Fold this sequence. Notes:
By secondary structure, the protein is of the alpha+beta class. Helices cover about 20% and strands about 15% of the residues. The chain has a single domain (about 10-95), classed as Alpha-Beta Plaits (2-Layer Sandwich). The longest helix has 12 residues, at about 85-95.
Amino acid sequence: MSNVVAPESTPVWVDTSRCKACDVCVSVCPAGVLAMVPAPNSTLGSMIEVETPAACIGCRDCELHCPDFAIYVAERGEYKFARITDDAKQRAEDIKKNHYRKLSA
Length: 105
């Protein structure tokens, strides 16, 4: 059980003060929920962002693979997660093909 309390109505969130922008979480997300966005003040020039929170399926892959313990997923009782869809799978593939960067609108 997690000791971190989820922000209200949020399936996944990032502690940017701990995140080193390695993009591991983006690479393992099967639903394309996460993406890297430009952040000139960060060490690597980008930062993780929760792009599509409503698509989060609660698999916890991002949380489990984060080497810095900077990403959190709500508990099942705190949030009703989405089901994986073909659109979500395609978004995840498109983000990976875009070098983990946010897709253009």
